[in-house]
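Morning run. Coffee first, then this:
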Amino acid sequence: MKIYILRHGETALNSKGIMQGWIDEPLNENGRKLAEISGQAMKGVHFDECISSPFIRATETAEILLRESGNAVEIKTDDRLREINFGDLEGKSISEMGNDGYKFFKDPFNFAGALNGENIKDICERTQAFLKELISRDDGKVYLISTHGCATRAMVNYLKDDPSDFWNGHAPYNCSFTIVETENGTPGITAVDKVYYDKSLIVNHYKDKS
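And here it is:
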């Protein structure tokens, strides 16, 4: 069983370093381009099933990648794959989030969550419930899971050697993959932030500018 966990392509809000959370933002031109390049580079990879966050940036990325890689697979959606809900902080930049922005990236497990939003424990619980349920199938299939940056890190956190290192130094790059494989029903992470496009095109809009 092999699970390709994909972070969606770039959006206009991504390019501005804005925390979009549950804001349903489509891909921008660069986001569609990276998805196309990634899909073309993945020709020969066969996906048996695709499950996506319901947000358009995730479903659009999956649709492009499947088309360009030659996979005619229905895209199913699961609400557990949604990005973290930033509540009243949605639409704000890291600097506008103040201490909350610092906590979210530098000390995520002590990020209390915004009013009307979620914290890291919340998103870990729902994304890991999804992944554990999928792994329990142990069906030998290859899955494409299209989701979001924080959701990706949260989903695989329990599989890491050091779960206290939530971010691995940065948010997952747009159109990058974290790959989970199972052997005799036991899951393990076999790739983190793998890109199928030229690494010179990687942009981290949320890096520490201090």
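The first helix runs from residue 12 to 15. Good start to the day.
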